[in-house]
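User: My notes are a mess, but here's the protein and 1-deoxy-D-xylulose-5-phosphate's SMILES. Can you give me a structure?
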Amino acid sequence: MRLYDVELTSRFWLGTAGYPSPQLLLDAVQAARPGLITCSLRRQGQGGNDFWGFLQALGTPLLPNTAGCRTVDEAVNLAFMARELFATNWLKLEITGDDYNLQPDPFALVDATRELSREGFQVFPYMTNDLVLAKKLLDAGAQVLMPWGAPIGSGQGLSDLNGLKALRQRLPKVPMVIDAGIGRPSHACQTMELGFDAVLANTAVAKAARPAAMAGAMARAVDAGRAAFLAGPISARELAQASTPVVGTPFWHQEPQ
Ligand SMILES: CC(=O)[C@@H](O)[C@H](O)COP(=O)(O)O
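Assistant: No problem, the inputs look usable. Here's the predicted complex:
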């Protein structure tokens, strides 16, 4: 898939926070071969340059994020730091508006997206699944959107299926990556079957009993869901319909002998 003129090799993206050890993170990356990995400058700063160097050495495209920021100014300052550290204009913009469910602040997101886009950043805003917010973020300069599946770390999967379907249907050409709340490979597969462009997961992999095995399963689920979407799945029906409606007609368009 191509985003902001960069080709990514996988539609599964992996967060790098909270693994039991660097080795298990490395194993997860090798098992999943994600299209990109994220890096939280604020939250993962304790390891400092060592950790950031470790991530860069993985050789996977890196998407720095502003997790932990609560204001436009904080996020913008961190964005400039990320650009300097990682030599990239890509930025996953996170601005928390509510501490209970870590819900993004829609107003601050729009303001920060406008300011950062003006400064040449290529912004990936982490947002709720609100259609009007999506349009305003696009107007502000974002070309990719990252609606939540459910609150970060909850593992609930797609908690507002109708809202997400509406978002996909109303903005069919906008690249959209479902970020947060993915708990299982089935959630990732369902996301892709709905026609979303990619999936980002962190907690479900980092906190799994075997992170590398889960990372691999997630990546395969994303591939399967994408293949199913492209294959044109049938619509669910309320009533039964015999698979072979007429005796002796193996193909539906064949005239009975
Ligand atoms: C990794 C990242 O960038 C975050 O947005 C978040 O941590 C992802 O959510 P989950 O941890 O629920 O997958």
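The pocket of 1-deoxy-D-xylulose-5-phosphate is lined by residues 15, 17, 38, 65, 92, 126, 152-153, 179-182, 200-204 (CB under 6 Å).
User: Great, I'll file this with my notes.
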